[in-house]
Amino acid sequence: MAVGIFDSGLGGLTVLDAVAKRLPDVPLAYFGDNAHAPYGVRDADDIFQLTTAATERLFRAGCDLVILACNTASAAALRRMQESWVPSDKRVLGVFVPLIEALTERQWGDNSPPREVSVKHVALFATPATVASRAFQRELAFRAIGVDVEAQACGGVVDAIEEGDMILAEALVRSHVDALRRKMPSPDAAVLGCTHYPLMDKVFQDALGPEVKVFSQANLVAESLADYLRRHPAMIGPGQESMFLTTGKPRQVSDRATQFLRRRIEFQAA
């Protein structure tokens, strides 16, 4: 009955924490590819190979459903995986879907033509690879018209968070918000398009100002997953226990994960 959650590093723990609170009876297997993080500076083929290898490991752990709690993997690899790689009895889902559902106020299954929505100017903060993919803009355009998206590649933020240097991470966030403001002075909403960024959501909100609505992914993904499993209960896999897997150094990753979630997390070698 396990569900898998994958991220290139520790950022996906924000999603895992929200899912664990929303679905406390579902075992969660987490895979952090810490040895190869960050993904945001890699090319699409490299991201695809790393993501499929991690997903296959989660399948072996008894997960029939895997959430790519990594915007870069969702942007650069998910569609290719779904079209040519995912076995027919498995599912791999990304984190864009719940975010765009919230932003456009329409369900993913709503295939009616794109329409105007209340939000007109959106600031997207994401990794360089996610920005380059334009996946967010593409998915948004299927559902909404008249929305201006200005993307800001937030180089260095993931690295700083992974290293536990939150002072540097805050300085970088404020610098990237300033850069975005020079291109889009008055956004209506901001999308934190990386699962590491909820760890800095208060900094983003403070830098953007109270008039900007900030969309963060963790709780949106958790609620969307709960709804998906209600509709597709057969996708809960046969795995019986929660686990934390990493390609990095387990003790080091465990210590940083414990700092992030403020509860003891023990990783094992993948």
Polypeptide structure, described:
This protein has a 6-stranded parallel beta sheet with strand order 4-3-1-2-11-12, with helices on both faces. The chain has 270 residues and is α/β, with parallel strands linked by helices. Strand 9 (189-193), helix 10 and strand 10 (213-215) form a beta-alpha-beta unit. Helix content is 44%, strand content 19%. The protein folds into 2 domains: 2-94 and 218-269, Rossmann fold (3-Layer(aba) Sandwich); 97-215, Rossmann fold, CATH 3.40.50. It has helices spanning 13-22, 44-60, 71-76, 78-84, 96-104, 128-133, 135-141, 157-162, 166-183, 201-208, 218-231, 250-261; strands at residues 2-7, 28-32, 63-68, 91-93, 115-116, 121-126, 144-145, 148-153, 189-193, 213-215, 243-246, 268-269. The chain is globular and about 50 Å long. The longest helix is centred in the middle third of the chain and has 18 residues, at 166-183. It contains 12 helices and 12 strands. The protein starts with a strand and ends with a strand. The model has no long low-confidence stretch (mean pLDDT 92). Helix 9 packs parallel to helix 10.
* CATH architecture assignment name of the largest domain: 3-Layer(aba) Sandwich
Which term fits the overall shape?
globular
Give the strand content: 15-25%
CATH topology of the largest domain: Rossmann fold
CATH class of the largest domain: Alpha Beta
Given helix and strand content, the structural type is: alpha/beta
Number of helices: 12
Features:
alpha/beta, 12 helices, 12 strands, Rossmann fold, 2 domains, single chain, six-stranded parallel sheet, 270 residues, globular, four-stranded parallel sheet
